[in-house]
Amino acid sequence: MAKTPSEAPRPVNFDRIARPYRWLEYGTLGPLLQRTRVYFLPQMLDCRQALVLGDGDGRFVAELLRRNERVRVDAVDTSGAMLALLERRARSERVTTHRLQAMDYVPEAGTDLVATHFFLDCLTQAEVDALALRVAGGLVPGGLWVVSDFRIPAGVMRWPARFYVGMLYRVFGFLTGLHVRRLPDHVAALTAAGLTRIGLRRRLFGVLTSELWRADGNGVLQ
Ligand SMILES: C[S@@+](CC[C@H](N)C(=O)[O-])C[C@H]1O[C@@H](n2cnc3c(N)ncnc32)[C@H](O)[C@@H]1O
């Protein structure tokens, strides 16, 4: 049954926090999130066609373009303000922006890199499952998918991590209308989509994860 407007969840909108986003991040976690985003950049230097989902203000795209002089980037985001910042920061004809729901975007033929930094946590489990299948299906064999995200580690850090992530969800829910309240299991989604994790780096007592996944499952990076 169709939802009436009062029942429908408010659409997520990051426009309002696009400008202060970077300073909010630096003010809370300093350089940790950017280090998490760029950790696997050395493995992306041969990529030629990247799809970057929900890159926000474009700090990862700008760094990717700076380090890889041949890559072309499709950047997909629902926030016009974030995409405007991304275009300004990237200043490159190699970037095409798409103001779209990530789930509605069909990857370009030849896509050999997908990047989702602190983005999958904006989606429900069902959305991540569907997105992983769709996007992984568009990756060339050997194509890479880099993920940065929060996680709840095992052990004593589980409780402060739950508190911290829960607080982040409440703040972002208030500021952007985000209705997701728990981290989806992207590992299960990417594995089910046929990808293999080939690189892993944890920070902040296991609360931050950088992961590199590959479409054909051969080999393991150390
Ligand atoms: C938490 S921010 C992360 C930004 C950046 N990737 C980072 O590393 O900080 C999430 C970004 O995803 C975008 N976004 C949220 N839901 C989306 C969706 N369903 N489709 C496309 N973009 C979305 C937001 O507009 C925002 O720019």
UniProtKB/TrEMBL annotation:
GO terms for MF: methyltransferase activity
Record-annotated membrane-spanning stretches: none
Swiss-Prot/TrEMBL keywords: Methyltransferase, Transferase, Ubiquinone
Keyword Cell inner membrane among record annotations: no
Pfam hit, one: Methyltransf_25
GO BP annotation list: methylation
InterPro entries, alphabetized: Methyltransf_25, SAM-dependent_MTases_sf
Domain Methyltransferase: 51-143
Protein name as it appears in the record: Ubiquinone/menaquinone biosynthesis C-methylase UbiE
Lineage: Bacteria, Pseudomonadati, Acidobacteriota, Terriglobia, Terriglobales
